[in-house]
Structure formats: C-alpha cells, structure tokens
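Changelog-adjacent note: as of this version, every example in the card shows the full chain rather than a window. The one below runs 104 residues end to end.
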Amino acid sequence: MARYAALVGKRVQVQYRAGDIYLPATGILAADSGKSIFLEEHFESRGRVQSFRWEIPYPYIVEIGEVPPQASAPAADSAREQRSTLADSGLLDRKSLRRRPQET
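Full-length structure tokens:
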C-alpha cells in the first residue's frame, strides 16, 4: 500500500538520508510506488523549461510534509519578473550581465 498516496500531485518538502547526511528536497510528489516516492521539479536553464525527477526509497525518508504551492506563473515569466525586480531594486547591476572580454 502506498503510504503517501494522499500527497500525490501536491508540492512537498522531504528530508531524506543519503549515507550519513540528511538532505532536503522540495518538489511535486509525482508518484508513490509503495516502495519509493518520486519527486518532480520544473526549472529554467538557458532559457528552456526543463524537468528533473528523482526517486527516494521509503527507508531513506526521514520527514515529509506538504508545502504551499508556488505561484502559477511559468518558469520563464517568473525568472524574467525576478530579474526585473532585482534591477528595479538596484540589487542587480545590468552592466554585470554584459559579456566581459577575456583577459590575456
């Protein structure tokens, strides 16, 4: 029986064990096989929206809980808004975004 079936499709935060360390992970709970859970996260890389999915076996899960969903804006729009907000606040210097010549 799937322990976390009620959370499938919801945004969750998981703390899991990897060897001797604990790692946090946040994403959409895509599936629960009864032996493992599968998290999925969408992100923007080089102007393209991509997805990443990973498996966490039940024995390695330390804690799992639902978190509020992110804004429903697509990743590209969200990244553009973040850059705009940073530029408006003066935290992002547009000059630093220009390609600098290679030093010889």
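Structural remarks: The beta strands are 11-18, 21-32, 36-45, 48-57, 61-66.
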